[in-house]
Amino acid sequence: MSAAAELVPDEDFVRVCRLDELPEVGAAAADIGGTVVAIVRTKDGSVHAVDDTCSHANVSLSEGEVDGCTLECWLHGSRFDIRTGLPSGPPALAPINVYAVKIDGDDVYVATTPQNTTPTHLER
Fold it and tell me: By CB atoms within 10 Å of each CB, which of 2, 47, 48, 80 scores lowest?
């Protein structure tokens, strides 16, 4: 992936990489203005962006496994829906942020602010 995200003038998106820099199925980390996000490509070719840090154990989600629209943390197995940021169950209880993605030609752009409005914690 490219070393630094490039700001797109007059928009709240940054260019983070080319499509061919992403794994065919999997995730890669990108730093967007000090926020590390996981850029995830699924088996169907769709691209998503979520916070790279697991809400349970503070480890990199981009090192985890992608299964459908789920990203699994490699440390304790927390699973997050990459469309909503919601965990599927313990050990993670708090959601992660989700960022809008735009594809322009071969370039991947990610929003600089999260798009989801999920709560920062879930009630028991």
Answer: 2
Q: What is the pLDDT of residue 124?
A: 31
User: Which tokens in the block code for residue 89?
Assistant: 């169950």
Mode of pairing for the β-strands spanning 35-41 and 47-51 = antiparallel
Quickly tell me which residue has 């070719």 as its tokens.
45
Q: What six digits make up the tokens of 1?
A: 């992936």
Dihedral of CA atoms 10, 2, 113, 117 in degrees, nearest 10, equals 140
pTM: 0.84
Beta strands in the chain (DSSP E): 6-7, 13-18, 26-32, 35-41, 47-51, 65-67, 70-72, 79-81, 98-99, 101-104, 107-111
Task: For each of the domains in the chain, give its residue range(s) and CATH number, in order of start.
Answer: 6-111 (2.102.10.10)
